[in-house]
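Exercise 7b. Backbone tokens:
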């Protein structure tokens, strides 16, 4: 079976991982338990953390629109992106960008 890291990459890009679980002869439930045991988080939690991490990089690197960054990171709507971003960083994307620039400049 592919590594946890590769499954996360696939999921973060919006690719289905169910085919890989079938190839490994695992039911979705068994896969979920195995994944959480190995990664310490559920697959959706891990994917969201990966996506938000990439969004943080993009926010820090440039002046792209928050909406474009959200979509580039695999979020389908801005409200969901903002909510998940705040849960993981305790800041809104705009606050994050502003604070990052204050510390970098």
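Sequence design result:
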């Amino acid at each position: 079976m592919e590594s946890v890291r590769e499954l996360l990459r696939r999921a973060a890009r919006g690719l289905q991982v169910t085919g890989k679980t079938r190839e490994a002869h695992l039911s979705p439930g068994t896969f979920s338990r195995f994944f959480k045991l190995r990664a310490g988080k559920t697959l959706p939690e891990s994917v969201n953390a990966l996506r938000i991490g990439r969004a943080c990089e993009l926010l820090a690197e440039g002046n792209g629109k928050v909406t474009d960054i959200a979509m580039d990171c695999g979020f389908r709507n801005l409200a969901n992106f903002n909510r998940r971003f705040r849960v993981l960083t305790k800041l809104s994307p705009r606050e994050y960008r502003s604070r990052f620039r204050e510390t970098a400049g």
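Instructor comment: The chain has one domain: 4-104. Residues 4-104 form a domain with the Arc Repressor Mutant, subunit A fold (CATH 1.10.10.60).
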